[in-house]
Specification:
The chain is α/β, with parallel strands linked by helices. It is about 45% helix and about 10% strand. The chain has helices spanning about 40-45, 50-55, 75-95, 105, 115-135, 160-180, 205-225, 250-255, 270-275, 280-290, 315-330, 350-375, 380-385, 395-400, 405-415, 425-435; strands at about 15, 25, 35, 35-40, 45-50, 100, 135-140, 185-190, 195, 230-235, 240-245, 265-270, 295, 335-340. The chain binds D-xylulose and cobalt (II) ion (CO).
């Protein structure tokens, strides 16, 4: 047996709700069947390489605190390859089947594109071998077009064509890597695709350029035979004041305007939804209504802190809502629940990685069970259906059939008494929700 990087952590097993063992699942029982599928099949948990292996736990006021005894801090390919072993030991012990990466998480940025590409290929060789050995799968890959100073004014929306070409080159290499690793998807998160002031920005040209980058990616996908799903991940502000991909509706509008909707779905992240002034449920509903919900970055924000805190998704109400949407759309196809989440800066020991993920997985297992019970019971669905019943027949039906005109509705309204509304019963419905919790 090779070296263990987490010698104090056993393989995490399901011990049930009565267990007091912090290194055990209380709710997540991978093989347990809920609503016709196993929990593992429903939830499709993924771990992000950037938080698990590269997240140093810095914040805007201080540097990293995370202890990573396996990491020598160098930009060497050897160090990058060693991290792969650590990561796969983590995946094995926590029992997560999928993972996600940015090109620059897995391999070093060497300030020389040819060298960075060569390093990426070497690390991808190692990752491919590890996947082969363990059966773990890549949920999605992506290119980091936001950390390096060259991208400080954007990648696909940079005012500088050389930077744009560099961004395109990175997308190409990251797509090649994702394809080699059998990725089920490829994500575009806007990073610095947005602006801070219109005094220096040509918004129209930037959006045209960004759309062309995505069109080129669609063409390249065809060319290399990559079958994975493309996603756009909405997020408002952070880092730019005005992100072009600010929320689900903005992304869908952009995709429609540029003829890209058939080639993309959305990857919705909880903390991005709340930063946009929406609930996660709102963002998911907008996406699902457009037939465009692809995958989920599961985390949560902190209502008392105004930035993307990327905390672990332990809010039961949110998890129930997320799983109601996922069950409602018949489950994920290419997507899954990627823990785009990090430990608090104070939780700096390697074992905290396990506590964090166990918490997220258990909370989502409960979310799944509660959502399945709500769905099976059908009370909310019946209530909503009844609330719109006046559109099932009579004048309402003429609206849904699109035969109504302003004249026909005016004649109807003139010949009928003042409308009588039924109560929305929000409090009663919230009480029902609490009964399930
Ligand atoms: C940033 C974020 C990214 C994307 C991938 O807030 O969520 O990590 O998920 O680039
Ligand atoms: Co994310």
């Amino acid at each position: 047996m090779s070296t263990s990087y987490f010698p104090d952590v056993p393989k995490i097993a399901y011990e049930g709700p009565k267990s007091r063992n912090p290194f055990a699942f209380k709710q997540y029982n991978a093989s347990e069947v809920v609503a016709g599928k196993t929990m593992a099949e429903h939830l499709r948990f993924a771990a992000p390489y950037w938080h698990v292996m590269r997240g140093v736990l810095s914040d805007p006021f201080g540097g990293g605190t995370a202890l990573m005894p396996w990491d020598d801090g160098s930009l060497s390919v050897e160090n990058a390859i060693k991290r792969v072993d650590v990561f796969f030991e983590f995946l094995d012990k926590i029992g997560i089947d999928f993972w996600c990466f940015h090109d620059r998480d897995i391999a070093p940025e060497l300030n020389d594109l040819a060298k960075s590409n060569a390093a990426l290929e070497k690390v991808v060789d190692k990752l491919a071998a590890k996947q082969q050995e363990t059966g773990k799968k890549l949920l999605w890959g992506t290119a980091c077009l936001f950390s390096h100073p060259r991208f400080s004014q954007g990648g696909g929306t940079s005012p500088n064509a050389d930077v744009y070409a560099y961004a395109a080159a990175q997308v190409k290499a990251a797509m090649d890597a994702t394809h080699r690793l059998g990725g089920l998807g490829y994500t575009f998160w806007g990073g610095r695709e947005g602006y801070s002031t219109l005094w220096n920005t040509d918004m129209k040209r930037e959006l045209d350029h960004l759309a062309h980058l995505l069109h080129m990616a669609v063409d390249y996908k065809q060319k290399i035979g990559f079958k994975g799903q493309f996603y756009i991940e909405p997020k408002p502000r952070e880092p730019t004041t005005h992100q072009y991909d600010s929320d689900s509706a903005a992304c869908l509008n952009f995709l429609r305007e540029y003829g890209l909707l058939k080639d993309f779905k959305l990857n919705i992240e909880t903390n991005h939804a709340t930063l946009a002034g929406h609930t996660m449920l709102h963002e998911l509903t907008v996406a699902v209504n457009a037939g465009a919900l692809g995958s989920i970055d599961a985390n949560r924000g902190d209502e008392l802190i105004g930035w993307d805190t990327d905390q672990f998704p332990t809010n039961l109400y949110t998890n129930v809502e997320v799983m109601l949407i996922v069950l409602g759309m018949g489950g994920f196809t290419t997507g899954g629940l990627n823990f785009d989440a990090k430990r608090r800066r104070e939780s700096h020991e390697p074992v905290d990685l396990f506590h964090a993920h166990i918490g997220g997985m258990d909370a989502f297992a409960r979310g799944l069970k509660i959502a399945a019970a709500i769905q099976a019971d059908g009370r909310f669905e019946e209530f909503v259906k009844a609330r719109y019943a006046t559109f099932d027949s009579g004048v309402g039906k003429t609206v849904e059939d699109k035969t109504a005109t302003l004249e026909s509705l005016s004649a109807y309204a003139l010949s009928h008494p003042e409308p009588v509304l039924a109560s929305g019963r929000q409090e009663m419905l919230e009480n029902i929700l609490n009964d399930y919790m």
